[in-house]
Description:
The protein is of the alpha/beta class and 491 residues long.
Amino acid sequence: MTVLHDMTVAALAAELRAKKVSATEVAEHFLARSQADTSGAFLSFNPGATLAQAKIADGLLAAGKAGPLAGVPMAHKDIFVTTDFPTTAGSKMLEGYRSPFDATVVRKLGVQAGGAGMVNVGKLNCDEFAMGSANENSAYKSVANPWDTSRVPGGSSGGSSAAVAARLVPAATGTDTGGSIRQPASFCGITGIKPTYGRASRYGMIAYASSLDQAGPMARTAEDCALILSAMCGPDLDRDSTSLDVPEENFALNLNASLDGLRIGIPKEFFGEGLASGVRAAVDAALKELEKLGAHLVPISLPRTELSIPVYYIIAPAEASSNLSRFDGVKFGHRTKDYTDLVSMYKRSRAEGFGEEVKRRIMTGAYVLSHGYYDAYYLQAQKIRRMISDDFQQAFKVCDVIAGPVAPTVAWKLGEKTNDPVANYLADIFTLPASLAGLPGMSVPAGFGEGGMPVGLQLIGNYFKEAQLLNAAHRLQQATDFHLRQPGGAK
Ligand code: GLN
C-alpha cells in the first residue's frame, strides 16, 4: 500500500471504505505527522477529539452508514468555529476562545449525522481575521513555505496551503475574501477553489468582509477539491442570509468531460507589466496544454482590473470595521486587565487584542464610511464594483472560462514585504476581480517559476460553473504532473 500521507483524499476514502485501513490508524498517522511539524502551519491540536472523531468514523464505516469521505483526515483554517478545538482567527483577541457550536462547513464535513465523515486533525494558522497575503499577520507565528522555508506560504490561508503541500493532511479548508484560497494554493503548488459567493454557508466563519467571504477546499488534486466542495456547499438559509437557495451538487461527476471546443478567455490586463517572467512562462505553458486538450484561447479584456485594488481595499475594510466592532471585551474577545471606566476598557481591550494590520483596516474602514467621505470613497467603490461584475458578464459572452496567473510573482521571502502593506495589497491584483464579482475561481498547479517556486494557473468561471472549472483543472492534471511533485521539505 502507498504511504498514507502520499494518498489523495479520493484514494484514502476508497481504502477506508474497503477496510484496508481504519480511520483510527489514519488519524494517528496524520496526527503524528502534523504534531511533528515545525513550519508553523498549525495553531492547535486536540488529539483526544481527533481520535474520538476517528472512532465515530470507524463505527459508521463498520455499520455501512458512512458519509462519502468517512475517516479521511483534514484540518480547518482557524477562522471556522469548532467546539472540539479553540478558534482564534489568528488573533490575540480570541486567544483561548471556544465556540459553543460548529460552523456549518465544519458540521457538513465532519462525522456528525449527515456529514461527509471527515476527521479534524487540528486548526490551521492564518493571517489575523484573514487579513493578509503572506500569513505574516498571524498574531501567533509565521508559516514557512515547504518548497523553500525562507519564503512565505501565501495568505491568508497560509497554514492550510503549507500543511497540504507538506502532506501533513491531504486536504484543508480555506477562506477567500480577495484571494486567500487561490493565492496560497498557487504559492505552495496545490489546488484550491473558491466557489460562487453564497454556495458555502458563512455561518460560523469568523467574518472579515461579509459580502466577499467564501469558504472552499484546498487539496493536492482537482478531484479531491471536487469531492470536498460537494460536501461543503448547499443552502443554509436559516443561518446565513446570503446563502443561496441552490441545491447541493456533485462536482466530481463530470471531471473527465472533454474540453473540446471550450473557449478560454485570456484577459490582456492579466499579462501586462509586473508579471514575473517565470510566472508568465508557466502560465503560457499550461494554456498550451489546455489547447492540446481541445480548448481555444480567446483574447478578452477586463478593463477595470487595476481598479479592483482600490475598490477592494475600500469595501473590505469598510465591512471589517463594522464586523470587528463586536470585539469589545464585553460581548466578545480579550478584555484588558487595566481600565478605569467603560470607554477605557473598550479602548484598551481593542488596542491590546488587535494587531497592526487589523487596526489599519478598521481605521481605513471607519474613514471611508464616515460622513463626508462616504460618497467620495465607499459609494464610488460600490459603483465600480458593479462595473467590474458587468465586465465579466461581457467577457462571458465570448468565452466559457477565464484563465490567467493567480499572482504576479511566486512566493516572496519571509520578511520581504512585512512592513509594506501596499506591496502586499498590490500582489492581490489578479484575485480581487473575481472576488468583487462573487465568481468562482481556482488555482491549479501550472509549473515552477523564479527560484523553482510553484506557479498556479487561475481559472475563473461564471456563477455556478464550479464543475466546469474543476473539469478543466482535472483534465490539465491528467496531462501534467505538477500536482504530484513534492517539496524538498516533505518526507
Ligand atoms: N490579501 C487580501 C487581504 O488582505 C485577501 C485576504 C483574503 O482573501 N482573506 O485582504
